[in-house]
Amino acid sequence: MGIEGPFWRAIAVFRVASLAYAALLVLRAGGYARPAVAWAVVGVMAVWTVVMLVPPPSARRGPLLAADLVVTVACLLAAPYAQSRDDMLAGAIPITATWAAGPVLAYGVARGRRAGAVAAAVMSAADLWLRSGNGVDLASIPVNGAVLMFMAGVVVGHVARLAREAEERMRRAARIEAAGRERERLARGIHDSVLQVLALVQRRGAEIGGEAAELGRLAGEQEAALRALVQAPPVAEEPDPAPPPGLHAPVWQRRRLAHTSPGSTGTGAAESDVDLRELLRPYGTSGVTVSAPATPLRLPAGSAREVAAAVGAALDNVARHCPEGTRAWILAEEDDGAVVVTVRDDGPGIPEGRLEQAAREGRMGVARSIRGRVADLGGTVAITSSRTGTEIELTVPVGADKASADEASGRRS
Q1: What CA dihedral angle connects 246, 247, 253 and 257, to 10 degrees?
Q2: Are 149 and 120 within 8 A, CB to CB?
Q3: FRET label pair with 4: which of 246, 273, 396, 409, CA 20 to 30 Å apart?
Q4: How many CA within 13 A on the CB side of residue 53?
Q5: Where exactly are the structural domains of the chain?
Q6: What is the pTM for the complete model shown?
Q7: How far apart are CA 363 and CA 331, in angstroms?
Q8: Histidine kinase/HSP90-like ATPase domain: from which residue to which, for each copy (predicted)?
Q9: What is the residue-averaged pLDDT of the chain?
Q10: Domain spanning 172-412, CATH class
Q11: What is the DSSP string of 87-112?
């Protein structure tokens, strides 16, 4: 039913309230001239109100709305059989009273303002014929009710149409956002695996020379083409420096693939918590020191893998952009309901404006593989850089869950 549900519930409340008002009119008038007929009409109105309390499904909506209009017109035209001619001449309200507006509102919600206006015209014509057939002077018939009914049908129909359009826009925006998040996730996985391997093949091929150099050149071309697919606009990649001995890229890459392959990054919603320390320890080498507390750092499995992948991306940047012999330290701890992982190096630091330039060139190491991952978990990233080194601090709530973070992002939008 979607966004129409509240409209149908409001119409149901209106029908019930109008039915109570009609019964009150009959009571105040002492049953009119023919109480049995008057209460019989109220009984039919009550039965039909119960029938229309449940919103009609789309497949049955047309016939049911037509039946609603017919039953309401019939109840309206039954008024002369319960009310005397003197009552009608005195301007007494028909037994149906405001209940007659039910099908007008229903048509407006289901079919739009034009259908609401047509239903209002039918009900107004029936009321006019009823009064004129009982000797009421046409010039003296009040038109306030007809005008209000017409306006109600048009306004409700227009608002319902706007609500449906807004709902469709929201659904479209949610689909686009979900596709964007999935694209970001895939781009991070590609950056952490395929692009890194292609860059490694390019560098090693250039070092070896001969036929390997041609293989490295082709790998470089494919790396640039793949970057163009996951990040626009495409730009040619500049050659990367060889990794320092302490941060050996092939060993590093194998460890990264074990923990951050695209197929292993799930939502974590149905997975148990894991100890983040176990995912960070494999990063320790002669050039990387891993420090963690003696107690476990528990995170949902999917979230822990994302944090470990972000740490690996930070170490990749050290290996690719810092001089040989640069050391790195990983410090993991829990602080005030959050897991904080700090990656620090003693390299030359990040030149001012380099991160913004890298994002424009399609390099995703910081923008997506680090900041994007942590942002999806509801966490924050703080980067501090100087001539004495760079420090990247990742803060993730202990209850971080990628599925719930995506859900919250969808609600904010």
Answers
A1: 100
A2: yes
A3: 409
A4: 10
A5: 4-142, 172-412
A6: 0.47
A7: 26
A8: 302-400
A9: 78
A10: alpha beta
A11: HHHTTPPPTTGGGGGHHHHHHHHHH-
